[in-house]
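Task: sequence in, structure out. Protein: Solute carrier family 12 member 4-like.
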Amino acid sequence: MGIHPGRMGSQQRVPDCTRCTAMLTHSDSSSSGTQNTGDSPDSASKKNDFYDRNLALFEEELDIRPKVSSLLSRLVNYTNITQGAKEHEEEESAEASRRKTPKSPNMGTLMGVYLPCLQNIFGVILFLRLTWIVGMAGIIQSLLIVLMCCSCTMLTAISMSAIATNGVVPAGGAYFMISRSLGPEFGGAVGLCFYLGTTFASAMYILGAIEIFLKYLVPQAAIFHTADSQSSDSAMLNNMRVYGSICLSLMAVVVFVGVKYVNKLASLFLACVIISIVSIYAGAIKSISHPPEFPICMLGNRTLVRDLFDVCAKTVVNGNITEPSQLWERFCVPGNMSSAQCDDYFIQNNVTEIQGIPGLSSGIIRDNMWGDYMMKGEILDKAGLQSVDAHGAAENLYMYVSADIATSFTLLVGIFFPSATGIMAGSNRSGDLRDAQKSIPVGTILAITTTSLVYISSVVLFGSCIEGVVLRDKFGDAVRKNLVVGTLSWPSPWVIVIGSFFSTVGAGLQSLTGAPRLLQAIAKDNIIPFLRVFGHGKTNGEPTWALLLTALIAELGILIASLDMVAPILSMFFLMCYLFVNLACAVQTLLRTPNWRPRFRYYHWALSFLGMSMCLALMFISSWYYAIVAMGIAGMIYKYIEYQGAEKEWGDGIRGLSLSAARYALLRLEVGPPHTKNWRPQLLVLLKLDEDLHVKYPRMLTFASQLKAGKGLTIVGSVVQGNFLDSFGELQAAEQAIKNMMEIERVKGFCQVVVAAKVREGIVHLIQSCGLGGMKHNTVVMGWPYGWRQSEDPRAWKTFINTVRCTTAAHLALMVPKNVSFYPSNHERFTDGSIDVWWIVHDGGMLMLLPFLLKQHKVWRKCKMRIFTVAQMDDNSIQMKKDLATFLYQLRIEAEVEVVEMHDSDISAYTYERTLMMEQRSQMLRQMRLSSAERQREAQLVKDRHSLVRMGSLYSDEEEEVVDIPPDKVHMTWTRERCEAERRNRNNAPENFREDQSNVRRMHTAVKLNEVIVNRSHDARLVLLNMPGPPRNTDGDENYMEFLEVLTEGLERVLLVRGGGREVITIYS
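Result:
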């Protein structure tokens, strides 16, 4: 209900605002005075009178603005909106006030931020992959991986804390913060990246849960089996796909039925995580004195799959008989003790057993300090064991534990990073926090510190307690298909297996709950048109359609079926999101915008840039091709929102950054005028509006867009005649009409409308003041005053000539498109024809440059360019043509060249006739104007001074025409009649004979040139020619208009061009 201070507008909007304020005042008085039943109406009215007396000085402001008490009461009652709900401006509507007051948020730092962050950060990677990462990378490089990922998230958390504490943050998480800090384009792009990351995270958690279920909990549940053990991987992937799809469907149903069940189970899942981690530490401590018994069977230095045989020996003694063991039968022909039928490697190497969990005090940490990256299919071996290198049979490779994928440092970074994500869980719940600005920084940073310490200590403990070949064994094949982390835990491996299963299921449910709400928030912001359908949901606000889309995208991740393949994908999307959180903080800090006042003080732009750099580096370290794809997706979304999305103004930092960049560029441009090579027409287009404030000649804008093709500066100006205080509403309406027409004609530029008492003065103001610094116009585009001959009013053409004189005085170029209604629209295409240039006077090269610029546009591209120049009697036309062709070659402009000779200098009878008609018409109109002057003066006296201001046309003024008498001929005591008589005498004086002869010569030039131009260019698509300058003596203004009319008669499209007095085209590079 509050009125924006900057939008007072015209007086026409005051009644609405008064109504709003009256309602506010009524509510204030009712809430303060009449709630007490003891107060009588008289006492209430006295109280109102008391307020009125105190605020009488501000009565005008109170009509359109609320009192401070009203404003503060609304701000105090403000509640954080739920994720995906309306923005707070809409929340303040009358509909919201009728709603039931929501329960006040009361969650503290521990329950609201710290524990949710812990639950989201700890996940499937810790239980399923961290031991494998330590085994492959070694303790040193594993610590480096953990340090890189956790440092990246810590720096991001610092930036996020600064943004989250800069004002009230409604619950929208990273999307809300980035979109309001960097604008709708970045916000939409990063919001969708964050959404995709969260969706793929749900797929990763589901795959982790299914891996635990099929590998360690119920291996018998597998649907697909293969007789050939070597191709068991494909069967396993198919099992993952089937069970993953079933699990996803069940989870989607749970989320659809009610999120409250998910939230109630969250604490149970968190307890599973904490119990599992505690059991790891307990098992590591116990291993100092009593390491768990998990023997590993080694053949030579190769690790054997332990569940394929019973005894780790080649033979067994049954009574007194030595019999081949199951292991023997795997490597040899069954039932035959002859060594000839056995695998060579099996015969030449011994079978030994080593301890899988030597314990914390065993000193195994020295062996696990350095990495041992492997290729796909490479057998796990232990370096210290004796082995005879012999060629083994290929069909026996299934007996050995081998690497299922090729590993490298970069791959492990991509797989581990998802275990550091989840830091946004606190900011996502900001609507439920008692003091979000205090809880979010403290809780998030404490959670990251806790998880980082757990990861670092886990890396050291795993490397200190577990044998290297077991660490590198991803699925626990060497320890009878046990989960490798489970072998270290106490009191039983089942604690970890069951705990990790429930924690991954819980994390998957959380992701599947959060992702649709994030998509709903983006859809409700209405910045991406095709996502609008996902803003709708059930009556209680649950995002049904968004959940359906999320489930479909998560299904794509499940069809990949490999945890190690899905993890780098979501790493990219999360890293992209964190990168822009850091960028948002850095931009806001460096711009020092007045609204940037975060309560969290421990941030710096350098830390944000470091975090941004780390995010970018981690993206390309983990997978350069995924990074390029993720950036491409974000880039496409950005450009889509920029071109198709709704216009939003959120006071974001990119707008401020653009302003700073523009200021810097403008200050640089102030150094001096542009070099000739950089000169391009910077247009000021003077538009004429009709009485309904509609653009009278839209093709002026079409021509400007074709000439500019989106480059350089275009200012569209117009004049509203009247008083600024009374005409402000008309000014806004005129601006809006021009902006709408600019959008239709695709003119990229600025609109400037001024209010002036006289249109002529308004145009002069525009010519003088438009632009800023170095970004000023250098060319004026003005329409032709059509119908000036038929009008008795001379002001139309006088305004036109005055503008020509002003542009000349300001050293600006001038373009006057005549018959502009016949100019082509942007949808037309000229497939043939020519643009003819009639180069009569050198104007700095404007006539050469303009056709070249027009030919860049698709409308004129197929037109060829022809240049005509005029040769006099004493000119060598052949040499002129050669010189002109050379000049055009050096200018790199392709055009046909033609020299037109004008020998006939006799003045024709037609010329005399036209001149006589022109002068007789001028004299007749002058007499009519002088006789009507008195009548106009009488009418002016009775005119109502406070009538509605009428919109004047651009080339006519409403002021009374002043009789032009030179100052030295006017006596201050002359009457109006004496002044008119003096003027008549002067017009009939003999000295005018020379001027008449001058008019005849000028008319002769116009007639002859027009004949030549019409003869050569009657079928041209466009004719450009030099515009003659107006006469120095203002008495000849009307004749000047006649000369221009004669010069351009019979031509369909004409562009009159007048240079600005400087060179605009050069032959030099």
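Residues 830-947+997-1068 form one domain.
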